[in-house]
Protein 1
Amino acid sequence: MILVMNRFTVTPGREKDFEEAFKGRAKLVETLPGFMGFDVLRPTHSTGSGQAEEGGVFISMTRWASMADFENWTQSEAFKQGHSRRHPGMFAGHPQLEIFEVFDSTLRPPEGAQGSQEA
């Protein structure tokens, strides 16, 4: 399994815009072979004070069955469509892409999900 993370540094005051942009996304990635899941993470306790600071780093995280599946996504028409919207001033810099191969995991499908096995 491949885990792909994009780290977005969001401009302070644009957090809600960022979240709405992701909630309103085209969701085309979900139609691609090998796609396993998508999560978007928001910061909670970014400072030592226990309070989330304005702006901060948000992370989009996708899981893929293989690197080839992820690469096929990045070369697809669906990828182009899914990344065509622009959001001027929303980001403080370019997103940072990180790709990991999962070598050990306790991730389980939800109970009753297709493919889950019962003991």
Protein 2
Amino acid sequence: MKSMNIIVKTVSIAVICLQCLFVSSATSHPGHDHVLNEKQAIMRATAVVSSLVDKEKKVKGEMLDESWKQATDTATCEETPEYYLISFDNRQVGKTLYVLLTSAGKYLRANFDGQFADLIFSPYPVQSCG
């Protein structure tokens, strides 16, 4: 009788543990990363611009020079639950750079016209920023 009670308790504990694991995995799915607030998004976009300069990455065929690291005139052009579109106005070169990030801060793309029509964020299409 004691061994039967031990087996029943062990099975009950195992079932409860499995239920906890199932509920935990069911509520944590990919794509639901930590969402940035506007200030964090601007900081992340600033780091992206700095990285593009340091790694000598081209944006629409153009190399970003060091002056982009000092482009502190930033603004959030567009914010949805899916993405942030941040602008950097560089008066030294007379251009505005637009950086598109997911709401979790993943860098997607940058350009000088703020147009990202080819990217679809259903139900939040990227609007024109420029």
